[in-house]
Amino acid sequence: MNLISAETLTRQLLDLGVQPGSVLLVHTSFSKVKPVEGGPAGLIAALRAALGPNGTLVMPSMSYDDDHPFDKSRSHCAEMGVVADTFWRLPGVLRSDNNHAFAALGPHAERILAPHPIDFPHGLDSPVGRVYELDGQVLLLGVGHGANTTIHLAESMAGVRYRRDKYLTILKDGKPTRLEYREIDHCCRNFILAEGWLEERGLQRRGTVGNAEARLVRSRDVVTVVVERLKQNETTFLHPKGFDEECDDAWRSLEGSGR
After folding, report:
1. Phi and psi, residue 211, nearest 5°
2. Is beta strand 94-95 parallel, antiparallel or unpaired with respect to 102-105?
């Protein structure tokens, strides 16, 4: 199979609707996009070219090694995919400083990656919240809305009450210390419901980038449609009790809350 050039990818991204000079939050599965000339770095180059010098590229850079303190210069984010794990290592790319990290490159990078709470990872005071405030776009490249972290922002803004017990290891007075907290979380598989809600209102653009199906949507549109649904039923994303452990944890957190 012929390698796909960065120039071809850039053209496809622009045709999809990526706006030069904008803020773009990317979630991607490289295995769906490839083969790409230059590998993951070639895809990153295409994204940067589509955005131009005034655009800001943002990717998740989270580490799920909960038993060791996060080090933004060393902790990998392999769970986020090879493109994201390549991105934060590139010269000039900034990375925020906790386990719920994002990485960014461009004029708004410092603002997006400013210190954010470790125990409330996806509220307005977080990288995804700042992408929302900057009217950024969200690109799902070879992945669906199950990977769309902006939906967690919508849950926060809708005021959902469910939580799951979590912990991380942080450095406190120079010593590894366990930090326990409660996070808005569940299995997230029902985030795919957002697909239909966005499509119904013509708020999502779809196309092909490389060999991957691509979805492009404004962060603010994701939040608007999801908050509306959650205000009608805050448990829309939770599977019925007994379906999976993560959703069961979320349901248990609602016990005694009046539901």
Report:
1. -105, 15
2. antiparallel
